[in-house]
Amino acid sequence: MNPFNDLAEIYEAMVDWNKRLSNEEPFYRQLFASVDVKRVLDVACGVGHHAARFHAWGHDVEAADISSVMLARAKARAGEPAGLKWVQRSYDRSAGENVFDVAICVGNSLALADDEATMDRAVGAMLSAVRPGGAVVVHVLNIWRLADGPCAWQKCGRMKFAGRDVLVLKGVHRCGDRAYVEVIMMDPEGAVLKNESPRLLGVEAGQLGEMARRHGAGEIELYGGYKSQAYDRASSEDIIVVARKAGG
Question: CA-CA-CA-CA torsion for 60, 79, 168, 162, nearest 10 degrees?
Answer without folding.
Answer: -160
